Structure formats: C-alpha cells, structure tokens
Amino acid sequence: xxxxxxxxxxxxxxxxxxxxxxxxxxxxxxxxxxxxxxxxxxxxxxxxxxxxxxxxxxxxxxxxxxxxxxxxxxxxxxxxxxxxxxxxxxxxxxxxxxxxxxxxxxxxxxxxxxxxxxxxxxxxxxxxxxxxxxxxxxxxxxxxxxxxxxxxxxxxxxxxxxxxxxxxxxxxxxxxxxxxxxxxxxxxxxxxxxxxxxxxxxxxxxxxxxxxxxxxxxxxxxxxxxxxxxxxxxxxxxxxxxxxxxxxxxxxxxxxxxxxxxxxxxxxxxxxxxxxxxxxxxxxxxxxxxxxxxxxxxxxxxxxxxxxxxxxxxxxxxxxxxxxxxxxxxxxxxxxxxxxxxxxxxx
Length: 347
Ligand code: SF4
What we know:
This protein has helices spanning 12-21, 27-38, 52-61, 133-147, 169-180, 200-207, 224-230, 239-253, 271-284, 306-318, 339-346, and strands spanning 68-74, 80-85, 91-99, 102-107, 110-111, 129-130, 156-159, 192-196, 214-218, 258-263, 287-292, 323-326. β8, α6 (200-207) and β9 form a beta-alpha-beta unit. The chain is 36% helix and 18% strand. It is built from eleven helices and twelve strands. The protein is an alpha/beta fold. α1 packs across α2 and α9 (271-284) crosses α10 (306-318). The strands form two sheets. The protein has a ten-stranded mixed β-sheet, with helices on both faces. The chain is elongated, with a radius of gyration of 21 Å. Residues 113, 115-117, 120, 122-123, 162-164, 197, 337 line the site of iron/sulfur cluster. Iron/sulfur cluster binds at residues 113, 115-117, 120, 122-123, 162-164, 197, 337.
C-alpha cells in the first residue's frame, strides 16, 4: 500500500519494460497480470509460477493496491456496497448489483463529486481528487473477489458510483479499455456503461474513441430550467448542445443511449415532465431508466409513491417510450449515493 508502483496502474507493456530492467523476460508481466486479473490474487507470494526471489523482489518494489475495505453493507435484494480506502486515506464506494444472471460492478471515478446535484450526498463536499486507473480497476477486482466464493463473476461494469466519469476522462477511457482487454478483465465492451451528467465536448470525443460502451445520460429533468435548478453544472451546459452531442454519439457508435431519470416527488414527476421527457427520449431513440429517489438526510427531496412512479411509467409508455422502472437495489441500505462514505468517515 502506498507504493507508487501498483501493478494495477500498468499495462503489460509497461510492466514488461520495468521487469526487463530487473533482468526478467517480458512474459513475466503476462504471468503477473494473469494472477491479478484472472485469479484475483492480491499477494505476490501466491504467484507460484514465479521464483521465490522474484516474488520477494516484487513485494519489495511493487504493490497491488486494491483498496482497504472499511465497511460493507448489504440489502435485501442481494446488493453489496463496499467502502474502500486508498493509500492516501481517502475513501470511495463500489457496489455489486445482482440482477438475474448479471453481476454488475458499479464503480466510482472520483472522490466526491463537483457536479453538486442538489439531491445527492456525493456532491455535498465537492471532489477531493480523481481516482487513478488502478483504483478504478481495483474496485472491479474487489467485486470479483467478493463473488468468487460463490463461483460467480463480474459480467457488467457501470461507471455510476461517486464522481463524474467524463470529468476524469482519460482514466475513464483507459479503464474501459483495460476492463475489456484480453489480459485485463475481458468484459465485453457492450457490457460497460459510462454514466454522465452530460458534458457535450467529452461525449463527442468519447464517440470517436471506438469503445462501443453504452452511454447513460443522467438527465433527471427534461426542461432546461428544472435541470439547471437540480444540477448546477447544467447551467453551463445548454440542453440543445447536450442533446446534439448525444445524437452524435448515437450516429457515430450506433449504440442506444440510456436516459437515467431519478423521480423526485412533486419536482420532476408531473404530467408535463413526462411529456417533455418523452419528447427527448423519442428524439434520441433512447431507453429511459426510471429510479425512485432515496432520501438523503437534510436534503429537501422526497421519494414518490410506488403507485405514482408506475403512473409516470405508464404515461411514458403511452407516449411510445421504451422505459423501465429500476428497483433501487443498490441504495436502499444507505439511502443515496455517497452516504456510505460520509457515514464511514464519521465512524
Ligand atoms: Fe455527482 Fe452523480 Fe451525485 Fe450528481 S448524482 S452530484 S453527478 S455523484
């Protein structure tokens, strides 16, 4: 821990180059990364196809900084949320979400978040720093090792934890490539979702990366005024520009966009909101994911009733929208995103 040379930060080429300086052949890098990404091994001592001397040397000069588990909380739906501490003491959360045969790792990209959505706990203190590529991959590794005893594996990854992934653009793109890489986790590109509050310039850039990841836009409000009120960053990101960038993503990648919409009672769940949302969804040929808000202490928002959420869903369907109401499996244990970290810090 704390060693700057965490192997999780390195590509096989980079690791091979460094091992070359120790007089080791290039294939040692593949062996080490195989242990880490395929076997979930976090201790060089367990890498039994390496000589004892090399294992000792690796332990002295490298780390596998996989985060230190501070706490774990589960919910009735089988969701598990981990709070991980990094070498400098900051903490972030990642979540394992089961759904049918899918096992999704939901990862954070920043410590805190600068977007400052008024209904979210993560935004209360802003972003302390970006996570590194290795720290993002370490979260998937943590979920992988969580599932291993039951013989299950991570099938999907969503960049939907703490932070705005496109504000940590290079790390998000590189982590996506390594999640997909044969030498990495080998997770299908289409099983990786990048969720963003919507930074038009970065969405256009992402469309050109050839990643084939799913783009999920955290819309949460379908009118310019309401969105600007709920999401402070939206004031700088005109809706027209944002939707233009989403259309570009759709045209360039052929990948359907998902619109995330968190229902806040009496705020964005009215008839006219459904009409505005349906217009945007149809225009983008997007799928809509509705979520029920999980109240955060001291924040002035409430969760709508299940019946009301279902009315909203039916309204959208009657307007020709492909929409689902997502169970809030991930968050009922600790209310909303970011709360677990805040609680852990106070403990
Ligand atoms: Fe940031 Fe997401 Fe929270 Fe908004 S909802 S403040 S984008 S973590």
